[in-house]
Amino acid sequence: MKIAIIGYGKMGREVERLAKARGIEVTSIIDPSEKTAFHLINPESLKNADVAIDFTQPDSALDNIKAVAAAKKNLVMATTGWHDKMDEAKSIVKKSGTGMIYSSNFSIGVNAYFRIVEEAAKVFNRLEEYDAYAYELHHNQKKDSPSGTAKTIAQILTGNISRKKKALYDRLDRQIEAPELHVASIRAGSIPGTHVVGFDSEADTIEIKHTARNRSGFAAGALMAAEWIQGRKGFFTMADFMQDYFRK
Fold it and tell me: Annotated active-site positions, please?
């Protein structure tokens, strides 16, 4: 497999480092603000790549999807914060006949965590004396809040606990209502990505926690996703990847 890296920030550099360690050829690095060989996504900058991996910014995500699709290349979209344009992205991929895989978090550990949270939510759906909550912590350089991972967790909880209908991410100046799920965010210092899901009753509290130690887990997951999406057509998520992985 040969890859192109779109975005040469901390994550782009980590993908490059890990790809080289695993014998995966990086054919091009594309970033308009860096001293890289290519500044634009086009057929020329992508011509030797099998799959492109995007770790950029939310405001450029849709344009990047369009450009990669126009070049008839498959894409791992690892940029978060553009969920409101998901339907448009799916349409672009379908019309172009290419393949794309998206996730709020490509860490294999986090995606295993999603599956664990889903199973826990199904258990506590039957235990009405327990209330659910979630919170996340990140370093002060993170540009979105709540994290895309926290939003995915909220979707899992509201999708599997019938008494929880709506996730709230903002400050509450009132008593929370029973059908609401409160998801809190903290930004400070150099805190690594940390996500906690809890279930609380009068008798006890149960928490499930994931903490990222470094960026290598995200890069490794993105490379595994690139291998998986190679040759496929259509729009996929890491849930599809994980389902296929555990079926083997």
Answer: 138, 142
